């Protein structure tokens, strides 16, 4: 293995076992809805930029076409919404799209590992390069939290000899996070990529000499399991359920359980998806006194005009609309009021405590 992509290196860093399934055993990873949606959005953005399509009806047609051939059901309207954020539409007709590159990770070693990839979009200005990566993630993060843009900066500084500003555009919220890369940032990214690639090559050599794959590329369950297509197979390797530890007495024990829960929950999600596909074709599957089935849930959706009529009807019946209507978290977001402004109205926060996996702040 001589040529690496950022995603390949990142997978190895996050979970060596998942990396080995994909790139050594060459097992096809089951696709996830999040992955299919992300690829669909990127496809629409690329097509819109290359074809210079800006009219809404044309973009809608493209979104529906992309959704129609997706490997899992995805919503064409959601694809269209994410792909037509202001930052995206402003880029049409400018810069460079999906540019392929391949560079050495160790210029002094002609036989050293190489890096290849495609850059979503970048612009060349008089003073700098602005490289942009479109993200469909639900949770935003900063450019320096990963090495992706740092490696793009490595290539672009070699090509143009100009400073590089890395920009992440989160399409769900429209939020943008930027960082002007220093030579130290770029070298750190290069060093990480080089060391990771070298480690992969050494482990593959050891494997070819009779080493054990699961020992050379161990599973590292945790938050990375949430979107992993191999989680079900990986969970079969887990021995955590064989013995009941009783009450945890150390952080190490608790952390092990926490990581395994991530893996097992993801495995359950994959099993449910497979069972759902069977039920869609063949009907309910009984399990004792219950059954797995596709259950239709209904709710009334009130457009603005219907809300006005509902308010008038309540007033006609001497019902105070304020005893029925309420401002939800979604509604407050649309108002863009600050916490201070909301508190000044007399509202108060009522906290609830839930046990779940959350990002470390």
TrEMBL record:
GO terms for biological process: DNA repair. Keywords: ATP-binding, DNA damage, DNA repair, DNA-binding, Helicase, Hydrolase, Nucleotide-binding. It holds the Pfam family PDDEXK_1. SUPFAM superfamilies: Restriction endonuclease-like. Residues 4-234 form the PD-(D/E)XK endonuclease-like domain. One of its GO terms (molecular function) is hydrolase activity. Gene3D superfamilies: 3.90.320.10. This is PD-(D/E)XK nuclease superfamily protein. The lineage of its organism: Bacteria, Bacillati, Bacillota, Clostridia, Eubacteriales.
């Amino acid at each position: 293995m001589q040529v690496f992509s950022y995603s390949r290196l990142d997978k190895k860093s996050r979970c060596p076992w998942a990396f080995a399934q994909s790139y050594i055993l060459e097992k096809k990873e089951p696709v996830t809805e999040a992955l299919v949606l992300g690829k669909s959005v990127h496809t629409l953005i690329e097509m819109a930029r290359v074809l210079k399509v800006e009219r809404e009806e044309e973009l809608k047609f493209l979104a529906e076409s992309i959704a129609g051939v997706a490997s899992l059901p995805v919503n064409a309207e959601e694809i269209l919404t994410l792909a037509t954020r202001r930052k995206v539409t402003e880029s049409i007709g400018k810069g460079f799209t999906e540019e392929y590159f391949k560079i050495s990770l160790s210029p002094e070693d002609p036989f050293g590992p190489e890096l290849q990839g495609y850059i979503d979009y970048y612009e060349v200005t008089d003073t700098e390069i602005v490289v942009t990566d479109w993200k469909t993630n639900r949770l935003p993060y900063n450019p320096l939290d990963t090495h992706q843009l740092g490696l793009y900066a490595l290539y672009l500084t070699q090509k143009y000899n100009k400073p590089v500003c890395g920009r992440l555009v989160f399409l769900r919220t429209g939020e943008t996070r930027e960082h002007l890369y220093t030579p130290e940032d770029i070298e750190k990214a290069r060093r990480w990529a080089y060391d990771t690639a070298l480690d992969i090559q050494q482990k593959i050599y050891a494997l070819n000499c009779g080493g054990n794959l699961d020992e050379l590329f161990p599973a590292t369950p945790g938050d990375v399991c949430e979107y992993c297509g191999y989680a079900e197979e990986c969970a079969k390797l887990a021995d955590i359920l064989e013995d009941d530890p009783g009450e945890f007495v150390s952080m190490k024990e608790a952390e092990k359980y926490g990581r395994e829960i991530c893996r097992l929950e993801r495995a359950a999600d994959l099993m449910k998806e497979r069972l759902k596909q069977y039920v869609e074709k063949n009907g309910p599957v009984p399990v004792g006194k219950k059954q797995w089935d596709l259950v239709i849930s209904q709710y009334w959706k009130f457009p603005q005009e219907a809300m006005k009529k509902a308010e008038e009807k309540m007033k006609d019946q001497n019902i105070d609309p304020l005893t029925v209507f309420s401002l939800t978290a979604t509604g407050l977001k649309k108002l863009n009021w600050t916490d201070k402004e909301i508190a000044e109205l007399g509202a108060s926060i009522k906290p609830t405590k839930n046990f779940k996996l959350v990002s470390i702040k």
